[in-house]
Design brief:
Nuclear Transport Factor 2, Chain: A
Length: 125
């Protein structure tokens, strides 16, 4: 990951775990009332929305190509309990897509809300 270490520390750690050997470890980081929406576009005019709670996150993890894509921070910031993360997805080091993520961390240090949008049609680099 690149950028300021103090910016969006939770989401920075989240994507590092997601890119690691045991991405399912992120399930330990979510709250009981966790909700997410991950809008995933590959640029072919179709998009998949993984929306819901824990089960939706499990479904997202199960369909991922583990170990093929990595997330790289381009910019990030934190405002109160909310973190914002602009990044790039790379496949074997080659840029594949841009994404933006917003997350809310609850008072117990667990992720309560997560919204991610991904598109291969625009780059921020």
């Amino acid at each position: 990951m690149t950028g300021t270490p103090a910016a969006a520390p939770f989401l920075t750690a989240w994507f590092e775990i997601l890119d690691g050997d045991e991405p399912s470890r992120i399930l330990d980081l979510i709250s009981d009332d966790f909700a997410l929406s991950i809008l995933f576009s590959t640029g072919d005019g179709d998009a998949t929305d993984f929306a819901g709670g824990r089960a939706a996150l499990v479904g997202y993890l199960e369909q991922r190509e583990k170990g093929t894509r990595t997330h790289h921070r381009l910019a990030a910031t934190t405002v109160g309990r909310d973190e914002f993360f602009l990044g790039e997805v790379r496949r074997a080091g080659v840029p594949e897509a841009s994404f933006v993520a917003a997350g809310r961390v609850n008072g117990d240090g667990r992720l309560q809300r997560l919204l991610i949008g991904r598109s291969s049609e625009i780059r921020f680099t």
